[in-house]
Amino acid sequence: MTQQTLIELLDSRVSAALAAVGCEGAPAVVQVSGRPEYGDYQANGVMGAAKARKMNPRQLATEVVAKLNLEGIASKIEIAGPGFINITLAPAYLAAQVQHALADSRLGVPQPAMQRVVVDYSSPNLAKEMHVGHLRSTIIGDALARVLRFVGHDVIAQNHVGDWGTQFGMLTAFLIEAEQGGDSHVALADLEDFYRRAKQRFDEDEAFATRAREYVVKLQGGDAQVNVLWQKFLDVSLHHCEAVYEKLGVGLKREDVRGESAYNPDLAVVVKNLQAQGLAVESEGAQVVFLDEFKNKEGQAQAYIVQKQDGGYLYSTTDLAAVRYRVATLKADRVLYVVDARQSLHFQQMFSVSRKAGYAPATLSLEHVGFGVMLGEDGKPFKTRSGGTVKLAELLAEAELRAHALVSEKNPDMPEVERRVIARAVGIGAVKYADLSKNRNSDYVFSWDSMLSFEGNTAPYLQYAYTRIASVFRRAEGFDATAPVVLGEEAERQLALALARFADALQSVARETMPHFLCAYLYELAGQFMRFYEACPVLKSEGAVRASRLRLCELTARTLKTGLGLLGIEVLEQM
């Protein structure tokens, strides 16, 4: 079997045919056909090649088709319109693809040339508990890490937590007071309340504020006692994060944490290096890199500040140090920063400085994986009814409660233990899928009703599609797992075609960093299975036809389970 996806295979064959008629290097532009009458795939590259050669596109298309070797792959090749080449895949070829995928633990997904990919995601501020603003980075990053690993890349997760700066002096001072009063454990139970009370003390008590600033200096200077207290606070904060990660089913571990503090020893080195290269210059007492490629309204080069007037450093400096570490120590080929789209300018500038300074070689891909804002149904940023920040742990708890009510309504006689297992999978899955199924560049409206619906492009719909197939196998009571797949009906061929496109869907997610491509694929696959199931009786059929259709069911179930798993969503044998 080929070590190419379907689109890669067809693209290589059309490219070879273009080269054979004198169009060496002309792009094939093979893509999924948008309409059934155009076949399964359409090659559009002839148009551009014909224009370059100043000849009739249909004439060139005719020459290309004459040289196009798709023997054993395509059952029909047609020229349409001004010169499009439409390709319909042969049932026997698709049947062979199904059988290959069934025999492979990777479902026939080929491995590309391996890269070492660093995925920087979640990155909460450890001064507070995680809130809904951390949801998108966490689950988008986790999905990308899962997909990249599955297709064969070496993925290193990096949780670039906020664990440094002035606020930690304030929190350390407050923790010391709490310990002296004997209630540090109680105080740290609610990080939001702890932070709020510390901030109030800082704002209202000048003596406390002075002590807090002194602790910042001691912390940055490596004072052992202050460092112990700081580590205690970080440990409690990370414990809160890990509880959320476990609930979300996200794979981030303590060893993936590399916070801002880890780069502190390199910050002065970075500034001196930038100065030595003539990139950082003094401006109003600060050290600044002026970027001519980024100009303000007055046409002046924008300033990328790497050291403040008081000698302090910024996250702009820390991010440069992180690039140095990821290149020199982690040996990254590609770095993905899964961070709010509102940070777009910062990353563009940081990438530019990294290139100019030689921290990021030309071979390193630096990519900002931005995302929009989660909105309430009123179209405004998602908040509590009182207008406060929604804690992520509370949101996930509510998702489970709502799913439990839904499951209990549908299955009142089901044992409570089973209902809770289903509620967790459905509730958490619904929250994650509602986010991942949207184009990450867009804002999206958070709606409990739509995300928990069993109809439409939702997690419950896909989870239910899987359980329907599981029920087929319970009723089948065994089948020949080695039986050949035969695609006699068009609905069977269409399902096999959808299954064969799994690899292309994953490669597009890995390449474009767009998880919603995988969601769209799984939704289409589930819909195609439903059409197959209605048109082609499975359990009522007999002999070789029954066995073949059960094998199609098997690969559909495995593909749905694998695909949802790559999104971090559980499937259930019963719902």
Q: What's a concise summary of this model?
A:
By secondary structure, the chain is of the alpha/beta class. It has four domains: 6-89, Arginyl tRNA synthetase N-terminal domain (Gyrase A, domain 2, 2-Layer Sandwich), CATH 3.30.1360; 123-162 and 262-369, 3-Layer(aba) Sandwich (Rossmann fold), CATH 3.40.50; 166-253, no CATH class; 392-566, Isoleucyl-tRNA Synthetase, Domain 1. It is built from 21 helices and 13 strands.
Instruction: Write down the Rg.
Output: 28 Å
- CATH architecture level-2 label of the largest domain: Orthogonal Bundle
Percentage of residues in strands: 5-15%
CATH class of the largest domain reads: Mainly Alpha
CATH superfamily name of the largest domain? Isoleucyl-tRNA Synthetase, Domain 1
Number of helices: 21
Q: Helical amount among residues, as a percent range? A: 40-55%
Major beta-sheet overview = 4 strands, antiparallel
Global structural class: alpha/beta
